[in-house]
From TrEMBL:
Signal peptide: none annotated. This is Putative 4-hydroxy-4-methyl-2-oxoglutarate aldolase. Pfam families: RraA-like. InterPro entries: RraA/RraA-like (IPR005493), RraA/RraA-like_sf (IPR036704).
Length: 222
């Protein structure tokens, strides 16, 4: 029998301690701790900027461009603290999410929305703190016909997201971190934060060494 939506149960959530630790770390620092070769660059934040990083367990959706039937059903698979990640193929012809549905996601306790597709009602969304990232904007509303899939691997702006990955985001962009790697990434990122703070102190006190620039240039000349 044909099913408009293929539905798979959501993956276990990351621990509250892991989420809390990631919320304190900038995405750029986390990226530095993941070899700088993953994450998005083409999706934009449309919400009001906040001080903390968005972080939550991924519930994933793959939908036809401009159709939000799978998104509507996926809300039933989301728990407070999850990030709903929608692979709409980057299509910008019709919006998948607008002001009303993003408000519902926020009121249900989601940590954020990521849409590789279009949204609308941007003026309303920009007045809210609820994190919402998207490819672009259109006034045209969605279809609601399907097909779609829930909790399958998806690709948003070139970044593969598996159900259960931890999705983090701030004004610089988005990353997906496998739960098995989270502790190591957090440890490395904290070390980077500590080193950068020391560099800033050295700059303020006029004792920042430029020898590292000589070493980098020397390496490039070989």
């Amino acid at each position: 029998m044909y099913k408009a939506i293929n539905k798979i149960p959501s993956a276990p959530q990351a621990t509250p301690a892991t989420i809390a630790a990631l919320r304190e770390l900038p995405v750029s620092t986390l990226s530095d701790s993941m070899h700088r070769n993953t994450g998005t660059s083409g999706l934009r934040p449309y919400h009001r900027p906040g001080k903390l990083t968005m972080a939550g367990t991924a519930v994933t959706v793959r939908s036809r461009g401009g159709d939000n039937l799978a998104y509507l059903r996926a809300l039933d698979f989301c728990r407070p603290g999850d990030v709903l990640v929608v692979d709409a193929g980057g299509d910008l012809n019709n919006a998948v999410v607008g002001g009303i549905l993003s408000f519902y996601a926020a009121s249900a306790g989601l940590a954020g929305l990521v849409v590789d597709g279009a949204i609308r009602d941007v003026a309303e969304i920009r007045e809210r703190d609820f994190p919402l990232y998207a490819r672009g904007v259109t006034h045209r509303g969605p279809y609601k016909d399907g097909p779609g899939e829930i909790n399958v691997p998806v690709c948003v702006d070139g970044m593969v997201v598996h159900p259960g990955d931890i999705v983090v985001g701030d004004q610089d962009g988005l990353l997906a971190i496998p739960q098995a790697d989270a502790e190591s990434v957090i440890e490395k990122a904290r070390a980077v934060v500590k080193a950068e703070a020391e560099t800033m102190r050295a700059m303020r006190e006029g004792r920042w060494s430029r020898e590292s620039v000589d070493a980098l240039e020397g390496r490039s000349n070989n």
